[in-house]
Amino acid sequence: MAAFSLPAFSRLSPKIARAERELEQLEIFFARHSQEVSDGEWGALSAISLGIHNVYNGIEDSLLSLARDVDGLVPSGPTMHQDVLDQMSAEIDGIRPSVIDPELYESLTELKAFRHLVRHRYGFDLKPDKVIENLDRIRKAFPSFVNAVVRLEKTMAAEDTDDGDGTAGAPGR
Q1: Could you read off the pLDDT of 34-43 as tens digits, one per residue?
Q2: Distance between terminal CA atoms of the chain?
Q3: Which of 84, 135, 153, 157 has the fewest C-beta atoms lying within 10 Å of its C-beta?
Q4: Is 166 within 8 Å of 172 (Cβ atoms)?
Q5: Using CA atoms, how far apart are residues 125 and 144, in angstroms rounded to an integer?
């Protein structure tokens, strides 16, 4: 896990570390139970799906923190989950470059939809191929997300020549 120096980013460290630990546990469980997942065993499918759900939640929680601490605007309302992805994929002139590139945006959008299925439907609706597909997706998306946050902090730290508070001109700072 990368160490952050700007205050808005240092608050992300525990969130990212928790998601990273969840992904590690997910990998351990899948290594032991991959056949049960492939066979569609309800408990194994549910466990893997919940792990994917939890890692995605860590990513989304981190994005919401960036929206609050860097952008000064946190999406709310019924479309907030998609809105935060849209917000983080856009550059905000004078504040920050885009955080997530189009490929990561697409992956996170798919993971958000899967998380919704896990959260709002029963485990009997889980299909082994979709669970494995989303496990592969989170395996790639999580490190890409961490790299995107590290890049953003480096960019903002390089631009942070104002009052040294780590917000690089964010509103309300």
Answers
A1: 999 999 999 9
A2: 27
A3: 157
A4: no
A5: 29
For 130-145, the pLDDT digits (tens) are: 999 999 999 999 999 9
- pLDDT range class, residue 3, cuts 50, 70, 90: confident
- Specify which residues 92 forms β-bridges with: 96
Tokens of 43: 């408990």
> Residue 69 gets which letter from DSSP?
I
- Global pTM? 0.89
Strand partners, 96: 92
Burial letters 106-141, b for 16+ CB under 10 A, else e: ebbebbbebbebbeeeeeeebebeebbebbebbeeb
Residue 37 contacts residue 30 (beta carbons within 8 Å): yes
Residue with tokens 């992805």: 85
Q: Which residue has the higher pLDDT, 28 or 2?
A: 28
10 Å CB burial of residue 93 (0-12, 13-18, 19+) is: exposed
Sequence letter at residue 60: E
* CB of 157 closer than 8 Å to CB of 5: yes
Helix (H, G, I), strand (E, B) or coil at 96: strand
